[in-house]
Amino acid sequence: MLMAATLVAPSSAAFAAADGTARYVVLGTGRSGVELRSGPGSDQPSVGTLPEGTVVEIVDDTQRDWYAVRAPGSFGLPVSFCSAAFLTALIGETTPSARVLRATVTGYANGSDGGAVGTTTASGTVTHWGTVAADWRLFPLGTRLQVEGFGEDVFVVEDTGSGVHGLIFDIWFEDVAAAQAFGTQRRKVTVLP
Length: 193
Hints:
Elements: E1 6-7, E2 23-26, E3 34-37, E4 46-50, E5 55-63, E6 66-70, E7 80-83, E8 87-91, E9 99-108, E10 131-133, E11 144-147, E12 155-159, E13 168-172, H1 176-182, E14 184-191
Parallel strand pairs: 9-13, 10-12
Antiparallel strand pairs: 1-8, 2-5, 2-8, 3-4, 5-6, 6-7, 9-14, 10-13, 11-12, 11-14
């Protein structure tokens, strides 16, 4: 349970603990919780599981896709590693700044799923370059993003769908071939203030 914490408001910055350590919340696990590992990687021994909604402190975020985290003392766990895909920054009332995260980015186009994807987004806008679908619980309608590999292009969350939960972004492409060529990739995504 998050209590008074606010998640990913596009005009806020990551909330830090009193000592300046970034705090994140476990999300996107389908309520099964996230497995903590003794080292960075799913091949490392498990040291425990944290339930969805648990707030953790990031100790080290230098390993690709894995963060060293400190769980609340009540769990009795040592500093352990967690997949970054299941962590979302908490937002506080601090100076606005961009937030960078590593996420799964996919491509979609009108008709790419046999015709169900149309030209109108879930928000009612017409699809265009710059449209992105995201999990509105974490990235509300209107959230502005920049995606690694697309230069200074700014994408706006205007769509959502059954396949976009947690740290997954689905970029609209003009044609099915371009969306399929892009495929599914891990990219840095900057959430703009």
